[in-house]
From TrEMBL:
Gene3D superfamilies, alphabetized: Histidine kinase-like ATPase, C-terminal domain, Winged helix-like DNA-binding domain superfamily/Winged helix DNA-binding domain
Protein name according to UniProt: LuxR family transcriptional regulator
Keywords: DNA-binding, Transcription, Transcription regulation
Listed InterPro entries: HATPase_C_sf, Sig_transdc_resp-reg_C-effctor, Tscrpt_reg_LuxR_C, WH-like_DNA-bd_sf
Parts forming coiled coils: none
Family annotation (SMART domains): HTH_LUXR
Span of domain HTH luxR-type: 349-414
PROSITE patterns from the UniProt entry: HTH_LUXR_1, HTH_LUXR_2
Originating species: Kribbella soli
Length: 415
């Protein structure tokens, strides 16, 4: 597909009702990338954040939970080819992300074959054009309705993710009991049934109780609630839990404490999917403006499935938070979650690099010198997948689309 063909395909896709866009996109790309279905995730849209077209057996089963991780980890300008689970089965996909919309937009082709496609650059150009057009249509809507739309989308995405994580925690706890060879079968069944019943009750009440809790609570008490939930999660498994409380009882906004508990539990669940994890340490530090949650394990030190944490990173970013990961082979994974109070004063700075963390600055410095991911990982003694995670965050925070643009901004600022 040449440039003229890309433009012709884009014209074909955008020429028609917005609700039929995916159908036109599927028809325009059928020869370029054979697929069973195509799906779009746009985080700024509350009414239909996920739309799909194609084989009803597949397109009807695609949910936001299936695609949200891609929104946080597939970098604009760098199409991703791999395999993701949908409706209990694994499907080869091609995911293309565009930054031509403020919150990002991802289109996913559920392919009919596993072999890598060479049409990814053409599809990137096509999706950028389509996203820019659709985003302009969105901006032309009434500003008040647009803001309300985004607020509803964020609230719904948060609630869905939290309920999913609570469900995953319950299942992990039950599996820990059933796999524990020190518990006889009858006792294990009894405990599993009791945990399932407790999980159902918590699912109905816990999230609602946290969300309606306005005001503040002592930091120590907020951490104790997290500790109780983590002890229940790890009680019957082989992983030892170490806790480092905040060390003060300064009042912390309930919304910040709630968000931190949800984020820490997400990281712990991701860590438990790794092999050879025997210890997890959780610490909170609250200075009155920022809550830093640090979670460390002693596992293999590889981000085997970065998509799991990519979804969390995207949710935190939408709420002015940060997730910083360091995976050091042979030493383990460290996750640092930073959440800020809404009352904290904004720091106005002309330095575009001020938003980057220390590790991100180290990665950007080497990236600006022309180093590839592998050499950056070796120099910083972290895994290559950790470097990819940092690069994606750097591009997002600097509001650039490519590594070259990030390097140019670094050189212009450093001079």
């Amino acid at each position: 597909m040449e440039a003229a063909e890309v433009l012709a395909a884009a014209a074909q896709v955008i020429d028609g009702p917005p609700e039929e866009l995916l159908q036109r996109l599927s028809l325009a790309t059928a020869d370029l990338v054979p697929h069973r279905a195509v799906a779009q995730l746009a985080s700024q849209c509350a009414s239909t954040p996920v739309t799909a077209y194609g084989d009803p057996a597949v397109s009807g089963a695609i949910t936001g939970a299936d695609l949200a991780g891609l929104l946080g980890t597939v970098t604009a300008g760098q199409p991703w080819q791999g395999v993701i689970p949908i409706a209990g089965a694994r499907h080869p996909v091609l995911a293309v992300s565009s930054d031509r919309a403020s919150r990002g937009s991802v289109v996913v082709f559920l392919r009919t074959e596993d072999a890598p496609t060479t049409a990814d650059r053409m599809l990137q150009a096509l999706w950028d054009l389509v996203t820019a057009h659709m985003y302009r249509l969105t901006l032309e809507r009434e500003p008040g309705a647009l803001a309300q739309n985004r607020a509803i989308a964020e609230a719904r995405n948060d609630l869905a993710a939290e309920l999913g994580e609570a469900h995953a925690a319950t299942l992990a706890t039950i599996l820990g009991v059933l796999r524990n060879q020190r518990i006889d079968d009858a006792a294990a069944r009894t405990m599993a049934v009791e945990m399932a019943l407790n999980g159902l009750a918590d699912l109905r009440t816990d999230t609602q109780r946290d969300r309606v809790c306005s005001g503040e609570e002592p930091a120590g008490r907020a951490f104790d609630r997290l500790a109780d939930s983590l002890r229940a999660l790890l009680r019957h498994g082989p992983v030892e839990l170490e806790l480092d409380a905040p060390g003060n009882d300064q009042l912390i906004p309930a919304a910040v404490a709630h968000a931190a508990r949800v984020a820490v539990r997400s990281v712990v669940l991701a860590m438990l999917t790794q092999d050879d994890v025997r210890r997890i340490r959780v610490a909170w530090r609250w200075d009155g403006k920022e809550l830093l949650s640090t979670v460390r394990d002693d596992g293999p030190g590889r981000l085997a499935n970065v998509l799991d944490l990519g979804q969390l990173s995207e949710r935190l970013r939408l709420h002015e938070g940060d997730l910083d990961l360091d995976a050091v082979p042979g030493w383990g994974l460290t996750a640092r979650i930073t959440l800020r109070t809404s009352q904290a004063p904004l720091i106005v700075t002309s330095d575009p690099l001020a938003a980057l963390g220390a590790r991100e600055l180290e990665v950007l410095e080497r990236l600006s010198q022309g180093h590839r991911n592998r050499s950056i990982a070796d120099a910083l003694h972290i895994s290559e997948s950790t470097v990819k995670f940092h690069v994606a965050n750097i591009l997002t925070k600097l509001d650039v689309a490519t590594r070259t643009q990030a390097a140019a901004l670094y050189h212009a600022t450093a001079v």
